[in-house]
Amino acid sequence: MNVTENDNIELSPQDDGAANHLPGMEVPSIALQATDGATVDLSSLGLSVVYAYPRTSPLGGKALDGWDAIPGARGCTPQSCAFRDHFVELKELGVSRLFGLSTQTTKYQREAAERLHLPFPLLSDHSLLLASALSLPRFHAGGLTLLKRLTMIIQAGVIRHVFYPVHPPEKNADAVIGWLKTNGVADTVP
Question: What element of type H or E holds 61?
Answer without folding.
Answer: none
